[in-house]
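Researcher: Sequence recovery benchmark, item below. Answer with residues only.
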């Protein structure tokens, strides 16, 4: 899923967004986190990261505005890899941000994974992908996904992955409002709900629908965080309703929001769904599930 390519003076990596086709919260753990089961697919919306040699670590961001400070997962991943490997090498990183943050697409996690892959190559460390994924889990729960199959079942906090061989023919219209949601706020709202831990494992059901028509997945696109996300932003845009009104049968929220996706059987159908979301005031784009 993550491959380096040579660029002028260094390496380039494309970091894909992800969509949670399902997200079930199975219970709260003693450590304060939640046990999850989620069917996740990488899609063809990418951040682009360029890496070059330097004496220290430097990050510059372009595109969608994001912090270039120490809270950026690119720098957190880079510093962790440098500490754990014992290298004194540095890097100059340019991040072209195309995946909107705070919408549930996992862009920051994808950037962290891309950073670990690129710097392992740039610094000549020779670490196995499994070792990089374990480091990534220390940066964020979603990071290990980007080292594996483009479609996977995530369990635990998201660190336990099961690769899925099915490859969906669907197109997806992605839509998001002009605000993001903080994952910590959504989980806090979830914990205040009586039904917060009533999710049921259902991965097998949606896997059976992956290779069929988009409408066949409608019943399985369940995200147990959706009600909590609505409570975090009571005045938020109802993108589920927007998609439904445009004739979408299969709609879901990704991650902890605020973005939604609509499944379609053709590119033209997906574009019509995206146009409807734009007409309602949202941003939208059309993507496909990523192939190997």
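Model:
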């Amino acid at each position: 899923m993550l491959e380096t390519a040579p660029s002028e003076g260094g390496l380039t990596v494309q970091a894909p967004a992800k969509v949670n086709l399902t997200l079930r919260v199975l219970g709260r753990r003693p450590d304060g986190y939640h046990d999850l089961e989620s069917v996740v697919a990488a899609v063809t919306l990418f951040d682009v990261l360029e890496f070059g040699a330097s004496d220290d670590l430097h990050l510059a961001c372009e595109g969608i505005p994001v912090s270039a400070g120490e809270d950026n997962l690119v720098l957190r991943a880079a510093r962790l890899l440098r500490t754990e490997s014992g290298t004194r090498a540095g890097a100059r990183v340019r991040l072209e941000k195309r995946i909107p943050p705070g919408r549930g697409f996992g862009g920051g996690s994808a950037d962290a994974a891309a950073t670990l892959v690129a710097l392992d190559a740039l610094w000549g460390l020779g670490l196995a992908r499994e070792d990089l994924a374990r480091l990534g889990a220390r940066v964020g729960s979603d990071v290990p996904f980007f080292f594996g199959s483009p479609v996977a079942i995530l369990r635990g906090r998201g660190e336990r992955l099961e690769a899925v061989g099915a490859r969906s023919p669907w197109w997806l219209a992605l839509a998001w409002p002009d605000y993001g949601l903080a994952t910590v706020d959504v989980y806090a709202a979830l914990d205040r709900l009586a039904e917060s831990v009533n999710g049921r494992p259902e991965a097998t059901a949606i896997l059976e629908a992956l290779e069929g028509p988009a409408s066949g997945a409608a019943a399985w696109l369940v995200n147990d965080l959706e009600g909590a996300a609505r409570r975090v932003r009571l005045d938020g845009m109802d993108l589920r309703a927007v998609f439904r009104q445009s004739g979408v049968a299969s709609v879901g929220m990704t991650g902890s929001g605020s973005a939604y996706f609509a499944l379609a059987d053709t590119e033209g159908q997906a574009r019509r769904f995206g146009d409807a979301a734009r007409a309602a005031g949202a941003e939208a784009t059309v993507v496909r599930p990523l192939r190997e």
